[in-house]
Amino acid sequence: MDAVNIGIIGLGNVGMGALSILEENRAQITEKLGFPLNVRRVCSRSVDSLALPASALRTADWRDVIADPHIDIVAELIGGCTVAREIVDAAIAARKSVVTANKELMALCGAEIWDRAISARINIAMEASVAGGMPIHAVLREGISGDRIQTLYGILNGTCNFILTEIERRGESFDAVLEEAQQAGYAEADPSADIDGRDACSKLAILSALAFGERIVPDDIYTEGIRRITPVDFDYAHQLHHTIRLIAAARHTAAGLILSVRPSLIPQSTILAGVRGAYNAVWVLGKYGADTFYYGRGAGSLPTGVAVVSDLMRVAREIRSGSPERVSPFAHARLGEYKPIPIALNASAYYLRFRVIDRPGIIAQLAAALAAENISIDSVLQLPQANWRDLPFVITVEPTTEQSVRAAIARMAELNFLIEPPLAMPMEKSL
Question: Where are the domains of the chain?
Answer without folding.
Answer: 4-132+301-321, 136-297, 346-427
